[in-house]
Amino acid sequence: MLTTRTIKLSGWGGYPLVNATVCAPDDLFELEAVRDQPMIIRGQGRSYGDAAISANGLVVLSDRTNAILSLDESGLLTVEAGSTLEQVLRASVPCGWFPSVVPGTKFVSLGGCIAADVHGKNHHRDGSFGQYVRELKMMLADASLEICSPSQNAELFWATLGGMGLTGVITRARLQMSPIESPFMVVLHHQAPDLTGAIELLEDQSIDDQYSVAWVDCLARGRKLGRSVLITGHHARLEELPAVVRKTSKSRGFDLKFDFPDWVLNRYSVAAFNEAYFRRQGLRKKPFLQHYDQFFFPLDRIGNWNRMYGRRGFIQYQCVFPTSQARDGLQQLLEELANSRRASFLAVLKRFGPGNQGLLSFPIEGYTFTLDFPISDPGLLPFLDRLDEIVLRNDGRVYLAKDARMKPETFRAMYARTEEWLAFKSRVDPTNKFQSDLSRRLELLSTSVAVPV
């Protein structure tokens, strides 16, 4: 029998915070016993907003369904959906395999990676996480089990990829890994004096590498608007390593034991950090070795880093602009940010390659930009609405895994295949068994039944 309890629950941003009824089954098939209740599956809770919380229904914690089942000689990995990237990396890197796509944290479940169709620093070359998912095993609303893939039950597969857990329960996944020769990366930094320079660097084939990301000084104004440090890298081959290397170059992490006061992260402290970072990182003119942990997951070294934003939490805002409108859209967004005199401690620019067939998958070919803001800012939500208007004017969209406040009409205008997704949802989940606070806020529900609020 499943045991439930009521706890305070939020996404990684700490906003919104709700009272939620949770359970933690040893096997996801135990959920058949509560099939009459609405529910949402929650992995590690690393989506930032309200995608994996529910104030009305059951939140199912998948921590215990986390077995790594097999990794064969071709790099085909079979896992339970509750397993994390950290577990996978510990098992696969010594065997010479690396996940083909990783997001900015390793403390995320594989089921969550699929539900959000996460992307990484290599999207411009290799696409998103879903492009390396070879097969899913799912339990649907009627408790039936289905296997889906790009070639089998493809409609279910593409609705689930990026579908934020609203089409069914992913129980197992089969993923294609990529071969590596070492746990190290060869990294190179490049300075850009402004936004135009940053985009030119990201498009420069002579310096392009497997992975690339630009840190942006979001407080720079005037001629320095958008000044950046571009970070590129690739997995080090054996011949690129010195004869003797340390077994690991990971720096020690630490846990943040308390919430920062609201005043700590302000435009002055962020401006000082940005100036120091731009100058220091710009001095690194030659390639250098870095452990994959430091390259891909720098914030993971600070346990509970989200507490830097204070007790009330923060909102991370991530949008993407298509290539043809990216320069104008990014310029408008940075100008709006500069004029508001708000400080974002994180500001990251990446280039995306073509998207995939996922009905609600976020990436489109162009440029994605990420910012974060403490929720203690009293004018934040109207400001983010203004950013939405800029994104809409330039045919862009906002990432659901980061969203905590977008309006349903804005969402529909950004995601052209919403009605197609909803029609499929109505067929496979007509009673809205799978729902979350995000799905209710954005009206991502089957219309065949009334849903209590």
Describe the protein in words:
The chain has 453 residues and is of the alpha+beta class. It is 24% helix and 25% strand. It has helices at 85-92, 110-115, 123-126, 154-160, 195-203, 267-282, 292-296, 323-340, 380-393, 408-414, 418-428, 437-441, and strands at residues 4-9, 18-23, 39-42, 58-61, 68-71, 76-80, 97-99, 133-139, 145-148, 169-179, 184-192, 211-216, 228-235, 254-255, 288-291, 302-303, 314-322, 347-352, 366-374, 397-398. The strands form four sheets. The chain has an eight-stranded antiparallel beta sheet with strand order 15-11-13-12-18-19-17-20. Strands 5, 6, 7, 8, 9 and 10 form a six-stranded antiparallel beta sheet that branches. β8 and β9 (145-148) form a beta hairpin. α8 (323-340) runs antiparallel to α9. The model is unreliable at 246-258 and 448-453 (pLDDT under 50).
Task: Sum this structure up briefly.
By secondary structure, the protein is an alpha+beta fold. The chain has 12 helices and 20 strands.
Keywords:
disordered C terminus, eight-stranded antiparallel beta sheet, 25% strand, 12 helices, alpha+beta, six-stranded antiparallel beta sheet, 453 residues
Number of strands: 20
Structural class: alpha+beta
Shape: globular
Task: Round the mean pLDDT to the nearest integer and report it.
Answer: 89
Estimate percent helicity.
10-25%
Q: How would you sum up the major sheet? A: 8 strands, antiparallel
Question: What's the tally of helices?
Answer: 12
Rg (CA only): 21 Å
How far apart are the first and last residues' alpha carbons, in Å? 27 Å
Strand content: 15-25%
**Strand line-up across the major sheet:** 15-11-13-12-18-19-17-20
The parts where pLDDT drops under 50 for at least 5 residues are: 246-258, 448-453
